Amino acid sequence: MGKRLDQTRAPYYDAVMEYIKKGRTAFHMPGHARGRIVPQELIDFFGENMYLGDLTEVQGLDYLHKPEGVIKEAQEIAADAFGADQSFFLVNGSTIGVIAMMMAAVNPHEKIILQRNTHRSAIAGLVLGQMEPVFIQTRFHPELNMMTGITPADLRDTIRANPTAKAVLLTCPNYFGMSENTEELIKIARANNLTVLVDEAHGVHLHFHPDLPVSAVDLRADMVVQSLHKTMPSLTQTSILHLNGTLIDPRRVQTLLSYLQSSSPNYLFMVSMDCARRLFALNGEEILDRAIETADKARNRIKTLQHLYSFREEVIDDKTICSFDPTKLTICVKNAGYTGYEVEPILNDKFNIEIELADLNNILCFITAGNTDQDIDHLFEALQYLDKNPREVVDKNITKLPRIPNSILDPWEVFSMKPITQEFEHADGEIAYEVIAPYPPGIAYVVPGEIITQEVVDLVTELRAKGSVVQGVSPDNEVKIVKY
Ligand SMILES: Cc1ncc(COP(=O)(O)O)c(C=O)c1O
Question: Helix, strand, or coil here: 229?
């Protein structure tokens, strides 16, 4: 892949292994004393080695918040592997990366443009960074009943109406593997002097295979956050923040990450990132070939079923969906008369299968090279069962998104106010204290500071009746509001 640095190296892993071999007598954290006082059941299951590797800032292992040795080297090799100018390891997930990149690009009281289908970490960024959000309504796919992305025209119009905005935060690809026209969106933002931030939490693998949607890192977005743990073999909570160009000062990013992340970063996490990067830099294309092939085997078998459906490139519409990642296997169950919510427990309890996500019309399976033909046989057996046992199809579609409500206060202003509880069915016209979002996928219908409309009350009530969990509305049908 035309790399400058030696991708066969994993300097952080090597340093940790070397350090463990020294067998030093330890008088420091963590309190398990290198696995000597650990609940026996944990040693029995995880083994001693996990504890030996659970180190802290000891000689030769560098410090994440001021990297000058092996962590610096490992991050440089990672930047080279992913095609970025500079990369930062994250030990608190992409959640922290999204907040940090927003705060690196936008100062308090400045405007930031965001897609409405942003992750909740961006709402945290708005609160912590005291920013003024400008949301772009996400397009909606009525047949699949899901949010897709935004179009270049959507962004152009929003910038025209908000000429003082400092940055745009794109969320791409979406959970289901759909990518919008990132190239054009970045061009438009650039032409209008906006800093381009991309939440690519679901796309850390994209750079490593030519047939997958192009990564925003390769498109030279100013900052991109990716979750290594989502689609690469790396431990949960491991993510990476990439920086390109000179618009953002890397020292500001480093400082923000030091404010936001634990001062005791998990060393197993960093070993895991170093080795996952090496594996993908050396063998990513072949590994992803296997994942794509396995996903396609599943798709081909699903085609033989009468009621179930799984899309591939045909979902591309060249407006909001411009490329597609086939390792995301979405199965639409609507025509079998089920909701995704109903299918999930059947898969869990009857077939011992766990999926990534269920929504109203679909279930989503993440396919990796770790999935075998037997896994696909097993999944297909379950899907066949659903296909042969259809239910009466009633229209379960929620055919629209609510309009983005008017905002009275910014989310950070609401955060400092005292919330009061209100019956949801009578919340029309009140100011929301919390995000109200059907979950999954957790995309906000209402953001703190926005007016709860009757349209939202009606849609949420309908969704809940169909089995959706809605964050921000309690089981007793109450919401938190503020008076202003
Ligand atoms: C689009 C998006 N961004 C950010 C995140 C946060 O990622 P993490 O779990 O690595 O903190 C998620 C998590 O699901 C996500 O879906």
Answer: helix
